[in-house]
Design goal:
Strand content: under 5%
Radius of gyration: 33 Å
Structural class: mainly alpha
Strand order of the largest sheet: 1-2
Number of helices: 32
Number of strands: 2
Helix content: over 70%
Distance between the termini: 51 Å
């Protein structure tokens, strides 16, 4: 599995090069990437279906319990096959859809990294590794949503998605760390039998809140739902892949994966139940005012995501069966309809449903594909969506307390989904033909195969559910409930209450479709108060953060380096002086005043040179005095046995003096920029800093500084670090992660400088 992921990242990296060389046929080449991954996963299908779990673990940061651990069981295989199968359809589709985009190669890099990261997420068996892939999906989705970065709306939507999902990711990391405090491990397999220990621990409520925050933000649950419709600014292949079948289901996957370990309590189940129900109903109603095809599909996606979370909250065997079927059905029909929406936009020049109609003659294959997926989305027999909807209703009816209100909410939500389906899947193709910005015609083959395959699979999965779905159902249930549910999947359950509810849903959806315009007219004047709109909370938080940043900049970033130094020194001195004061009764400073002649001479030289530096009116004299101070400090390093530091000091001081002298003639004359009172203030701050450092050194030299850590470094430097310079070995070997972090910061800063120096679009066009 690690090799599969490594190949995925490598293939993504070379995608721009291949696209530049084979632009015309790149869709077929790109298809090889997800299709080969799908076939590789399919090779493990018999093993997983037989009840085995394929595991792999590579030590990474073993001392912290962080390993490259992967597991392929029924749940992860189901999600992985969805990711790669729909990825294959999307990659082929995008080869034609993105053909005219100037940066299409970069697009395939981003979406390849996303697909590989999503695979890593569902295959991870270590919580920290899962978090890393979790954040990689957030970053790659940010790049994909903001792909059309020339538009302000795209940039704003990308930032919004990143802030919401990234904030949830940080909460998730905190939850994983607390979970490790309880279980003593980051390995998910180690937690499998610890449900009683985890749920009884005082940290359990915090763990649940933090982990569900991560899941709810990623899967756009209420009140974090608002980022998903705005993410429709992304190109259509992104919407079809990330925002219907993969990324938005990452939170769903997380809840399902951790359900056995930390679920089963009222806090866990009731939170999922309430949040899922609210999302299911509230977001379906929001579709009433949308006219953009992708926005309509986005709101219906939100409703389905709420339904999936609701089913996990119910948690019964029948609900898990419904979850499994509905997950697959939604991925197939919603991926198809998003691609159909992109085809309509590509071939007609608009996604406004009010401007589309009568296209079935010009686009017959697209119309048939849309109809097939739409029947599944509405829950019409014999499509897999029918099985999913009936099983959802049946699992809700099993509830005693909340069964009736929840079934009413589910029917209402699904009625609005039927309305959306009629708007997206049928209205553009039937009725009176309408004028469109572009003359409509059928899409190229690469844009027809993918959605056509997904739509046909929805039919086959409905006709032969035992062949395609049932095999993995029990193995997935083992991961969620730790028991096989033993429920068969059948297409027809006879004439019963559930069937009547399905028919009522279709009827109510048809009524909502017919009354939609009238309802819109009545609601046009209605504006919900800002406090009732979660998006307003987000805007208020971001606006407050920006105001705070501007205020902070005005107070602190005033352009004067000496003021920055003052703030840093005062802050550091205040905190450190307080710490020294707190420790004053526990330590005693016993300075050693015995010094040699040359030590005293060096001290006097440094003092005199410093005085000359701050009082001189000659720039050359100040530079010489500064060099004297630096070289004298270097000699002190030599005396106390640090020749490497001394050599570094000598090199830096020599370079400083040379550079200062070389630019001396360019520098202006000394000018008095501060008043006498400011100089007195500066002298007090500088004197306090010097006094503090003196006290710190005297304190440090007043007692034995030996420690086990120092002894370990000294003993391990040569045999383990292969170096006799302990400081260098510490930096390069023992503190390698710190050093790597510093190098990374420098690299990021260098990239920032490069971006600032790079000519802008207008400048780049000048001859």
């Amino acid at each position: 599995m690690s090799i599969l992921l490594a190949i995925g990242f490598l293939a993504s990296a070379i995608a721009p090069l291949l696209h530049r060389r084979f632009r015309e046929n790149f869709g077929w080449i790109a298809l090889i990437f997800p299709l080969s991954m799908f076939l590789g996963l399919l090779w493990h299908y018999p093993t997983v279906a037989g009840g085995m779990v394929v595991r792999e673990s590579i030590p990474w940061v073993a001392s912290l319990g962080v390993n490259l651990s992967f597991a392929l069981d029924g749940l992860s295989l189901t999600f992985a096959m969805i990711i790669t199968l729909i990825g294959a359809a999307v990659f082929l589709y995008a080869g034609a859809y993105m053909k005219e985009y100037p940066d299409a190669g970069r697009f395939f890099l981003y979406i390849g990294v996303f697909m590989t990261s999503m695979l890593g997420l569902v295959l991870s068996a270590n919580t920290i590794l899962l978090f890393i892939f979790w954040e990689l999906t957030s970053i790659s989705s940010f790049l994909l949503i903001g792909f059309n970065h020339q538009r302000e709306s795209s940039r704003k939507s990308a930032i919004q998605a990143l802030l919401v999902t990234g904030g949830g990711g940080l909460a998730l990391l905190a939850g994983f760390i607390l979970l490790r405090e309880v279980t003593g491990s980051f390995e998910i397999a180690d937690m499998y039998d610890m449900n009683a220990l985890i749920t009884a621990h005082p940290l359990y409520p915090a763990i649940v809140v933090l982990m569900l925050l991560g899941a709810f933000t990623k899967s756009a649950q209420f009140p974090f739902h608002f980022w998903l419709p705005n993410a429709m600014e992304a190109p259509t292949p992104v919407s079809a892949y990330l925002h219907s079948a993969t990324m938005v289901k990452a939170g769903i996957y997380l809840v399902a994966r951790m359900n056995h370990e930390i679920g089963g309590t009222p806090l866990w189940q009731d939170t999922l139940l309430a949040t899922g129900a609210a999302t299911m109903l509230f977001t379906s109603v929001l579709a009433l005012g949308a006219t953009d095809l992708k926005k309509l599909l986005a709101y219906s996606t939100l409703s389905v995501l709420g339904t999936l979370m609701l089913l996990l909250g119910i948690g019964s065997p029948l609900a898990i069966k419904a979850f499994f079927i509905y997950l697959i059905a939604h991925s197939l029909y919603k991926g198809t309809l998003f691609l159909v929406a992109g085809t309509l936009d590509h071939e007609t020049g608009t996604r406004d449903v009010r401007r589309l109609g009568g296209l079935r003659r010009a686009m017959p294959i697209t119309a048939a594909t849309a109809a097939l997926a739409s029947f599944s989305m509405m829950g019409v027999i014999p499509l897999v969506g029918f099985i999913g909807k009936e099983t959802v209703y049946k699992s809700i009816l099993e509830l005693d307390t909340w069964g009736i209100p929840l079934i009413a909410a589910a029917v209402t939500a699904n009625a609005f989904i039927v309305m959306v389906t009629l708007l997206v899947g049928f209205r553009p193709f039937w009725g009176k033909a309408r004028a469109t910005p572009k003359h409509p015609h059928e899409a190229p083959l690469k844009m027809l195969l993918g959605p056509g395959l997904l739509a046909v699979l929805g039919l086959l999965f409905g006709l032969f559910p035992d062949l395609f779905i049932s095999t993995l159902l029990d193995q997935s249930a083992l991961s969620i409930l730790s028991e096989k549910i033993g429920l068969k999947i059948t297409l027809w359950h006879g004439v019963n209450m559930v069937l009547f509810l399905s028919l009522a849903t279709l009827l109510a959806g048809g009524v909502a479709y017919r009354l939609r315009n009238a309802l819109q007219e009545r609601l046009d004047g209605f504006r919900a108060p800002a406090l009732m709109k979660p998006s307003s909370w987000y805007e208020a938080l971001v606006g407050g953060m920006l105001k705070s940043a501007r205020l902070q900049t005005a107070l602190l970033q005033n352009g004067y380096l000496r003021n920055y130094i003052q703030i840093v020194l005062i802050t550091a001195l205040s905190a450190a002086a307080y710490a020294l004061y707190q420790a004053a009764d526990r330590v005693r400073i016993v300075p050693d005043v015995s010094i040699t002649f040359y030590e005293a001479a060096l001290g006097i030289i440094i003092i005199v040179a410093t005085w000359m530096l701050v009082t001189s009116q000659s720039r050359l004299k100040s530079i010489v005095a500064l060099g004297v101070v630096g070289f004298s400090i270097g000699i002190i390093f030599v005396i106390y046995g640090a020749p490497d530091v001394a050599l570094t000091t000598f090199a830096i001081e020599t370079l400083n003096v040379i550079l200062f002298v070389l630019v001396l003639y360019r520098l202006p004359k000394f000018v008095s920029l501060s008043s006498t009172s400011n100089r007195i203030r500066d002298a007090i701050i500088a004197g306090s800093a010097g006094l503090f450092m003196t006290m710190t050194i005297l304190l440090a030299t007043s007692f034995d500084l030996s420690s086990k850590l120092k002894e370990y470094y000294a003993a391990a430097s040569v045999p383990e670090g292969r170096g006799r310079n302990i400081v260098n070995v510490i930096l390069v070997d023992f503190r390698a992660i710190d050093t790597l972090g510093e190098i990374t910061v420098l690299a990021i800063a260098a990239l920032g400088v490069l971006a600032l120096l790079k000519p802008g679009p207008e400048e780049g066009r000048r001859p």
